Amino acid sequence: MRARPAAAGSRSRLTGPIVAPLVVVLLLAGCGSAPSSAGPTPPIVSPPALTPSPAPTLPGTATSPAQATAPSPSSPAPTAPPAAPSPTPAPATAVDLKLVADGLESPLFAGNAGDGSGRLFVLEQAGRVRVVRDGRLVTASFLDISARISAGGERGLLGIAFAPSFATDGRFFVDYTDRDGNTVVSEFRAPDPTADRADPGSERVLLRIRQPFANHNGGALVTGPDGLLWIATGDGGSGGDPLGNGQSLDVLLGKLLRIDPRAVAGGPYGIPPDNPFVGRAGARAEIWAYGLRNPWRFSFDRATGDLWIGDVGQGTIEEVDHLPAGARAGPNFGWNTMEASACFDPPKGCDRAGLVLPVAEYGHDRGCAITGGYVYRGVGVPGLAGTYLYADYCSGTIWGLDAATGKPTPRVLRESGLSVSSFGEDEAGELYVVDLAGGRLMRIVKAG
């Protein structure tokens, strides 16, 4: 069942077998009506215009074969750094995967609403949100906005997060690529939060970001411990960050953003006054962290508030980034000066001063694209307590590392054979694996 890259050197997260169904979905969705939107529509944030490179064939990660041979739209990309040595696998912790739901179409994420209902909400790339209630996949979609979305390649319905007040007001947020391929972050409402149906006509657009290329859209959304909305954006695509977005504070690409999603006078969202670049000339006040390439899933440890990010590498190294709760705001994770702990631009002698380097990494002998996860805080698998789980999409390897250790040693938890597009966490802290190619949601359980 394991999905493999289309060809040697392929670096795309979502593999070949699902492309054709997504194209069909996209064509069928083309005759849908235009979305409604309450409140003011924010302007599209536009990076400098360049001619796009060829679109990747497969979604979610690093450099596709088409991009690898395309001419750079600016100066040539720097030489890739030498491969990082992969960690020697420690003895595996015995975990099993238990089927929770199947029959999903290209699932990309699973999460909970924090409303006490025990439900899981699963994103399907083409634009639907499905509900798993009492261990059963509900037939009707919770939300279907497929007519508003371009899906396929690295595009689609990419993220969802729920307001802390969801149980009373039904507010939640999604991140998707619109029909033009640009990023949209919107608020929706469920008229009855206890029911399994949201109102697709309730959309209130918070943020639009123009995407210069078809890949590296990021898309993860998280309601943080502070109750604010955190948004992960990729560097805008192509290869090697030709526009320099990762290190540019005047654009929203290649960043971790932090906003107050409640409407304010004159705008659809507010800026937290303690964001690190508020009032700084030439910098976007929404930015909380920068220097990211394509953060594919991030999370906060529910016990400590620590931040964990899985950032996809260019062509050599995949990385896990970690910031303890209370760390200085405005961290720079290094892209494209660095690819993980190696110099990228320039390929030698780069300045590492002030950069936050990864706590774990692996080379492409062990996979091709990282999928970030969660620190386990459930009770069903005691041996995982305090372990941060992450995976590789192509190899299906699931690793764990001690979240309390400054330089933890990764250990292999399972060779899953799945195309792990995401992890998920339920209200009790139990963790799940989302299998894109298999269309399945699996729960991580104790072996035996």
Overview of the structural elements:
This protein is mainly beta and 448 residues long. It has a single domain, classed as TolB, C-terminal domain (Neuraminidase, 6 Propeller). The protein contains 3 helices and 28 strands. It has helices at residues 19-29, 65-69, 166-169, and strands at 44-45, 95-101, 107-111, 120-124, 128-133, 136-137, 143-144, 157-162, 171-177, 183-189, 199-209, 221-223, 229-232, 255-259, 287-290, 295-300, 307-311, 317-323, 338-339, 342-343, 360-363, 370-371, 387-392, 397-402, 411-415, 420-425, 431-435, 440-446. Strands 1-11-10-9-8 form a 5-stranded mixed β-sheet. Strands 3, 4, 5, 6 and 7 form a 5-stranded antiparallel β-sheet that branches. It has a 4-stranded antiparallel β-sheet with strand order 2-28-27-26, with no helix packed on it. The two termini are 22 Å apart. Mean pLDDT is 85; it is low at 1-83.
How are the SSEs placed, and which strands pair?
Blueprint: H1 19-29, E1 44-45, H2 65-69, E2 95-101, E3 107-111, E4 120-124, E5 128-133, E6 136-137, E7 143-144, E8 157-162, H3 166-169, E9 171-177, E10 183-189, E11 199-209, E12 221-223, E13 229-232, E14 255-259, E15 287-290, E16 295-300, E17 307-311, E18 317-323, E19 338-339, E20 342-343, E21 360-363, E22 370-371, E23 387-392, E24 397-402, E25 411-415, E26 420-425, E27 431-435, E28 440-446
Parallel strand pairs: 1-11
Antiparallel strand pairs: 2-28, 3-4, 4-5, 5-6, 5-7, 8-9, 9-10, 10-11, 12-13, 13-14, 14-15, 16-17, 17-18, 18-21, 19-20, 22-23, 23-24, 24-25, 26-27, 27-28
